[in-house]
Amino acid sequence: MNSKDTIIHAGWLINGSGGPASKDVLIKLSDRIISSIADYTPGHDEYLDFTDCTIIPALCDSHTHLAISGRLDPEIRDNQLHYGYDQAEAMITGHVRNYLKHGVLYVRDGGDFHAHTLRFKNLHHGKKGNNLSIYAAGNGIHVKGRYGQLLGMHLTPGRELAQAIFEDFRPGMDHVKIVNSGVNSLTEFGKETSPQFSVDELKGAVRAAESIGLKVMVHANGKEPVRMVVESGCHTVEHGFFMDADNLKRMADKGTIWVPTICTMKAYMDNSAPESGVHHVAKKNLTHQLEQVEMAIRYGVTIALGTDAGSPGVYHGSGVIEELGLLLKAGLSIEEAIKCATSNAMQLISDAPNTGTLSNGNQATFVAIKGKPADLPDSLKKIREIWVNGKRI
Ligand SMILES: [Zn+2]
Fold first, then answer.
1. Cis amide prior to 377 (ω within 30 degrees)
2. Are residues 33 and 82 part of one domain?
3. What is the distance in A from the centroid of ligand 1 to the CA of 174?
4. How far, in Å, from the CA of 238 to the mean position of ligand 1?
């Protein structure tokens, strides 16, 4: 063994590919890269003992709002719209800490009114001790008078969507966020809202974004808004409640990635009075979304785990436990659910090569969680260690 090598004896390994967990595994790191993964063989004493742990790749939340908290109080939520940067920074710092506590090292942000998250990212990027990689949209774009104010700026009438993407580009932006529907009704089951943009506008947006190296993430619920998003070649459908089987088939064909944010609906259900209409509708919406996820897996749609943390009752970090639990409820194995939060999610991240799975040649960036795979996802509350690029943090 080379003196620079480190060998970890893991109780269990979930490697992020979706395949079954392996038991009793030796993971060898050479120059901070994984150089081999093999079954445990006795006879050496220089192993780092992680036999009480399950090791998984670092997690990614593919849909968050770092500058919005999950607080329920409408007044507090409204106040957040008017936060200055310093106030927002204190809140974002807390959210970052909560993500790290739950083994999340990458987040894809869906925008906020003042683009505070983008500013936070640019101020903290690359600094020592900054272990959460933030991928930011800045402002989400929506049509004046329609849903989306909390997430960004409306498109000024007379201005084209593609033009706004070029002109409003700011350094540090990693993707473009567009809002193409309303939110889901909590009083009427499955009520569809109209799209905000046309297919031509969305196609123009994709061309504009791709020409500056950005992908397009689109908030869309309902058959027609989602159909347009998929047809126009946008990269991800965010939420996608009530999109229906035909859209799921189209997404499987086109390779459009789905971020179903199931836990938002569970939070509405959990935080409403059990006998109320809201509770009843939220519960039906949740059941419908779980059925869509089950269908998506059958059709071969790639699902990336995202929580929409910042939505009422959805909290940064712990929301990932909720969403993993709901993916299990939809019929995924824990290994498949972890894949949604690792290798699938990392397909949306441009500058983190050799991550997403723990395999030969990949970065040794992982989370050691106390307990066996069957203890997940709750055991994410009991993280023993996090390693980034071959080093314990
Ligand atoms: Zn969102």
1. yes
2. no
3. 16
4. 8
* Distance separating alpha carbons of residues 282 and 314, to the nearest angstrom: 14
Residues 224 and 323 in one domain: yes
Between the CA of 306 and the centroid of ligand 1 the distance, in Å, is 9
**pLDDT tens, position by position, 197-243:** 999 999 999 999 999 999 999 999 999 999 999 999 999 999 999 99
Q: What is the dihedral of CA 261, 98, 389, 377, to 10 degrees?
A: -50
Structural domain span for residue 301: 59-346
In the predicted structure, residue 1 carries a pLDDT above the cut 60: no
- The one-letter amino acid at 298: R
- DSSP structural state of residue 346: H
β-sheet with 257-259: strand ranges across:
152-155, 140-143, 175-179, 215-220, 236-239, 257-259
| pLDDT band with cut points at 50, 70 and 90 for residue 44 | low
Tell me, what's the pLDDT at 45? 64
Same domain, 224 and 364: no
- 40 CA from centroid of ligand 1 (Å): 43
127 and 17 in a common domain:
no
Q: What is the DSSP letter of 242?
A: T
Contact assessment for residue 131 and residue 391, using Cβ atoms and an 8 Å cutoff: no
Residue 110 Cα to ligand 1 midpoint, Å, equals: 5
Q: What distance in angstroms lies between residue 390's CA and the mean position of ligand 1's atoms?
A: 32
Measure 21 CA to ligand 1 centroid, in angstroms: 32
Distance 147 CA to ligand 1 centre (A): 11
CA of 17 to the centre of ligand 1 (A): 26
CA of residue 131 to ligand 1 center, whole Å: 23
In this structure, are 387 and 277 located in the same domain?
A: no
Is pLDDT larger for residue 293 or for residue 42? 293
Do the domain assignments include residue 352?
Answer: no
Same domain, 179 and 192: yes
Residue 308 Cα to ligand 1 middle (Å): 5
